[in-house]
């Protein structure tokens, strides 16, 4: 039950889903004040979430600032995580 509920809530909170529901509501309640409000809200959200400038600014605010190489710590060992690059090899190889 929790899995189904979490997936449903996730899908319903996506911006595209909210915009589609608002635009669908504006078609259903076409001649009422709620129809006009949902159409305006849907179009404003569509413009906001599809604006490349806003997306880039949010991404840049979320990124960690780069440090100069001279300020980083030096280690003797490191772990390199890789995936399987040749799928036909056996584990003994």
How does the major sheet shape up? none
- What is the helical fraction, as a range of percent? 55-70%
Principal-axes shape call: elongated
The number of helical elements comes to: 4
N-to-C order of helices and strands: HHHH
The total count of strands amounts to 0
Measured distance between first and last alpha carbons: 44 Å
Mean pLDDT: 87
Proportion of strand residues: under 5%
Can you tell me the residue ranges where pLDDT is under 50 for at least 5 consecutive residues?
Answer: none
Quickly give the structural class: mainly alpha
Using only CA atoms, what is the Rg?
24 Å
Characterize the structure shown.
The chain has 93 residues and is mainly α. It has 4 helices and no strands. The radius of gyration is 24 Å and the shape is elongated. It starts with a helix and ends in a 31-residue tail after the last helix. The model has no long low-confidence stretch (mean pLDDT 87).
Task: Give the SSE layout.
Blueprint: H1 2-12, H2 15-28, H3 33-49, H4 52-62
Helix pairs in contact: 2-3
Compact description:
This protein is mostly helical and 93 residues long.
Main attributes of the structure:
elongated; 57% helix; 93 residues
């Amino acid at each position: 039950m929790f899995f189904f509920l979490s997936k449903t809530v996730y899908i319903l909170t996506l911006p595209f889903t909210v915009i589609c529901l608002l635009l669908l509501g504006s078609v259903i309640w076409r001649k009422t004040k709620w129809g006009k409000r949902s159409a305006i809200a849907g179009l404003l959200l569509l413009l906001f979430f599809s604006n490349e400038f806003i997306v880039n600014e949010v991404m840049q605010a979320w990124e960690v600032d780069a440090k100069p190489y001279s300020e980083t710590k030096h280690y003797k060992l490191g772990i390199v995580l890789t995936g399987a690059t040749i799928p036909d090899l056996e584990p003994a190889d």
